[in-house]
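Quick illustration, no need to memorize.
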Amino acid sequence: MKIALAQIDYHIGNFDGNLQKMLERVEQAKALGADIVCFGELATCGYPPRDFLEFDDFIRRSYASIDALKKASRGIGIVVGSPSRNPVIEGKDLYNSAYFLYDGAELGVQHKTLLPTYDIFDEYRYFEPATAFKTVSFKGKKIALSVCEDIWNVGNENPLYTICPLDEMMAEKPDFILNISASPFSYDHANVRIHTVRANVERYNIPLFYTNHVGAQTDIVFDGGSIVMSPDGRVFDEMPYFEECLRVYDLDEVVRGGKTNEQPKDKIKLIHDALVVGIRDYFGKLGFKKAILGLSGGIDSAVTAVLAAKALGQDNVRVLLMPSQFSSDHSVNDARQLAVNLGMQYDILPIQPMFEAFETALQAQFAGMPFNVTEENIQARIRGTLLMAMSNKFGHILLNTTNKSEMAVGYGTLYGDMCGGISVLGDVYKTEVYALAKFLNKDAEVIPVNSIEKPPSAELRPNQKDSDSLPEYDILDKILYQYIEERKGPRTLVEMGFEESLVARVLRMVNMNEFKREQAAPVLRVSKKGFGMGRRVPIVGKYLS
């Protein structure tokens, strides 16, 4: 038996586009002699569809895609994920289902059992869990069909769940497992995914074929990396990251095992690739082509500009240099040099005259009051207004360049430097931004070295440096990581060796600035705990304040 895995960049709600991609892969799999071709979780409608699932027409169109795939299943088995209606009045209206289609008929439908409600997942809002478990018989083989999370409770060891779906199927002695997934990317998830697949294989001593999505759906990125694992626990093959791909595997060869092919897992390269895909799909799936951003001469805007050029092409990225009276000459020169290096269109719009006009307009109200963050924010908001004006006039979508460290502690101006349609670096700590910059410069100096080496500064007042307001980033980022990703409280952080007063200061900044993050652009998620759907913290909570 030959089994094809197809990892595809689906588009939520684009039924015609998703169906066309799958039909093309069906024909490709047939040409390669495959007996079965496997697509991803909720492949007909894309993942995560969220409240689109509440529209009856959305479900009707999902069924229409299944009907079209049935017609295409002459001579080949098709495994595909799609929502299905629950005929029982009690419970949720829908199941998250895996269909096995062959010769115009349904050989089996297995509903998803384990419905995650953690981090970015909210599946129990929509779906009823499965209560029946049955293998699918096909060409003399018994197949344990499963959907994503259903392999993540091996032997009931996951405390989130009380049932192990594959345990329920083992009484029928399946020959192999098929798992169709929509497993989002984070830079350490690929290793966890392989560990989980291996745990299943070691428990059941049969091969496992796992297919994943690729591409981005607004803030959520999927990396592909579909897996075939032999009964010996070796990764027979791991498909490419961030690429659409179809490969065919001979079941007998997989059973024999003895070979392995894993993808390299360099953290910074993975983050780089995820961000490029995230930008590309955000624009492509919304029908946009051109981006704009403010280029300051600093490292964040420089890295964002290079990533945007890679995702969209340098001709589709425009940058504004908006120096003030506080901008250093080298910052302007660094920004200009980067634009030249990338071959981007750039404009220089000095903001000093506009800032002085604001000062004059507010002179009476601000009389006798010192220059402070108010005047700094006015400068940031002037820049935001100029960028949005260019965005409106020319149809360019503004890319936000705020990094995760800044977003965490509120070191940004609402309606100023926090403007944007998508936040490119909002899940990348400042220290990781530096690592990205070095990665981007590995073959040639694209980002001027001065942008990397100079002390970071917003340049909103004379001789300003970020360290005037924030701890040094190498310390700040360690505290932020432990608090945000690892959910370590203040007592634990102090026990880990961080100064108590510093911990209190940093955590207070994080919690007091939740209102800013609620109003921020969607953040491309590359870590296991990004700002957005996966982190839900009250704005008015008093914890640690």
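The longest strand covers residues 77-85.
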